[in-house]
């Protein structure tokens, strides 16, 4: 693998030879400008003089800063993959692929810097070109505001990120959060898995690591003797939080009485499902009680338990997104419409791998697990270009 400094030295030589294309030279110029303390500025002025206003405008027309967001989200997923497995060729592949997303953001920054330097020589852009430049910079600003607080996602890449940081000019490092933010927080990953009794010197001094570790601690639930009637009803209606569900799982492993109560609920649900199926077969016009898409119509112990609840989260011409709740579990359906090719990814936590979809008769299906106070992030791609994103609760 070519080290970071050699890669930028090669780009500087490309600039000095004048072999970069007009559009690509903006990124090359900016790369050299932002690392001039190590690389010098050979070829920069000549390259800037060779670019016309039309060249700058053509480059700006092709830019979509919002397209960097899925690239960085994918980089976060790949960084997590590199940290989850054992060291080896596969982990190296994940790290290399993840760094490509960070480098894409860095090259956008380099192009913006090059345009600023070009304006200092030729005068400010005007008209539509000036508007496009403003929109480009604002788009990068929105992207950074959303993702900079999540820089911990890229901690598994810290050795490579440090190599990139160290080549940047000192004045550039504050802006380049993708290479510099949380770049010395390597101990955070080890602490997540081992929870050391004595924090390392870094963890003692880093408020961000301490806050992140505190946020990942399991919330302790006060001990109970048995599940109450209200507990059983809330469990049956799917109203328990994730913490409460965790307590129920642990408690019923030890308490046969409460386990039997849960089993009775499940047997009752099976009987209701069977009865509703017979009722639907005998009565062509379904009542509100038998509707599988309606929400609960009663609130309290003894209320009728519906086998399934569905909620349409999004409906567009190309696809429909449906959240399906069945007791304490949930799944998400992404249903293609209008014959368009649709792909999707669901992330339950930032920086974690996406869920694996299953292809079924209703479209792509994602098993979300237990429901109750949880959130996830959905990405849907239509064809090869259009991307839809949203967060949802289940």
Gist of the model:
With 394 residues, the protein is an alpha+beta fold.
Write a structural description.
The protein has 16 helices and 8 strands. It has helices spanning 4-17, 22-33, 36-39, 44-49, 53-61, 68-84, 89-122, 127-147, 158-167, 177-180, 187-194, 201-205, 207-216, 229-236, 242-254, 256-282, and strands spanning 309-315, 319-326, 329-336, 342-347, 358-360, 363-370, 375-382, 386-393. The two termini are 43 Å apart.
What is the secondary structure topology, with strand pairs?
Blueprint: H1 4-17, H2 22-33, H3 36-39, H4 44-49, H5 53-61, H6 68-84, H7 89-122, H8 127-147, H9 158-167, H10 177-180, H11 187-194, H12 201-205, H13 207-216, H14 229-236, H15 242-254, H16 256-282, E1 309-315, E2 319-326, E3 329-336, E4 342-347, E5 358-360, E6 363-370, E7 375-382, E8 386-393
Antiparallel strand pairs: 1-2, 2-3, 3-6, 4-7, 5-6, 7-8
Helix pairs in contact: 1-2, 2-7, 5-8, 6-7, 15-16
- For the biggest β-sheet, the strand order reads 1-2-3-6-5
- N-to-C span: 43 Å
**H/E topology pattern:** HHHHHHHHHHHHHHHHEEEEEEEE
Structural class: alpha+beta
Main β-sheet: number of strands, strand sense, barrel status? 5 strands, antiparallel
Strand tally is 8
Count of distinct structural domains: 4
Rounded average pLDDT: 80
Low-confidence stretches: 218-222, 284-306
Total number of helical segments? Answer: 16
- Shape call: globular
How helical, in percent, are the residues?
Answer: 40-55%
- Could you tell me the radius of gyration in angstroms? 27 Å
**Strand residues, percent:** 5-15%
């Amino acid at each position: 693998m070519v080290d970071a400094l050699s890669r930028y030295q090669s780009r500087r030589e490309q600039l000095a030879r004048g072999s970069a294309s007009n559009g690509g030279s903006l990124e090359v110029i900016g790369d050299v400008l932002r690392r001039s303390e190590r690389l010098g500025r050979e070829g920069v002025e000549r390259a800037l003089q060779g670019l016309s206003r039309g060249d700058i405008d053509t480059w700006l027309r092709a830019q979509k800063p919002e397209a960097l967001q899925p690239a960085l989200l994918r980089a976060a997923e790949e960084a997590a993959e590199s940290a989850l497995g054992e060291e080896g060729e596969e982990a190296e592949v994940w790290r290399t692929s993840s760094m490509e997303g960070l480098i894409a953001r860095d090259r956008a920054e380099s192009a913006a810097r090059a345009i600023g330097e070009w304006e200092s020589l030729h005068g400010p852009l005007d008209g539509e070109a000036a508007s496009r430049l403003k929109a480009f910079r604002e788009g990068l600003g929105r992207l950074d505001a959303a993702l900079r607080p999540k820089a911990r996602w890229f901690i598994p890449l810290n050795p490579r990120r440090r190599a990139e940081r160290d080549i940047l000019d000192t004045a550039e490092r504050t802006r380049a959060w993708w290479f510099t933010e949380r770049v010395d927080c390597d101990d955070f990953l080890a602490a997540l898995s081992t929870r050391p009794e004595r924090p390392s010197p870094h963890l003692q001094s880093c408020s961000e690591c301490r806050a992140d570790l505190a946020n990942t601690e399991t919330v302790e639930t006060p001990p109970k003797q048995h599940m109450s009637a209200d507990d059983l009803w809330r469990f049956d209606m799917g109203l328990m939080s994730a913490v409460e569900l965790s307590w129920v799982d642990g408690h019923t492993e030890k308490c046969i009485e409460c386990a039997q109560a849960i089993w009775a609920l499940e047997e009752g649900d099976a009987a209701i499902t069977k009865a509703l199926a017979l009722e639907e077969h005998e009565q062509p016009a379904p009542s509100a009680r038998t509707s599988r898409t309606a929400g609960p119509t009663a609130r309290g112990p003894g209320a009728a338990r519906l086998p399934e609840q569905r909620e349409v989260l999004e409906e567009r011409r190309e696809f429909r997104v449906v959240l399906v709740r069945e007791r304490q579990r949930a799944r998400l359906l992404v249903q293609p419409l209008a014959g368009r090719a649709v792909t999707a990814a669901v992330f339950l936590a930032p920086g974690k791998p996406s869920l694996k979809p299953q292809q079924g008769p209703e479209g792509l299906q994602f098993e979300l697990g237990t429901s109750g106070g949880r959130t996830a992030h959905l990405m849907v791609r239509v064809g090869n270009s259009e991307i839809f994103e949203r967060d949802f609760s289940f």
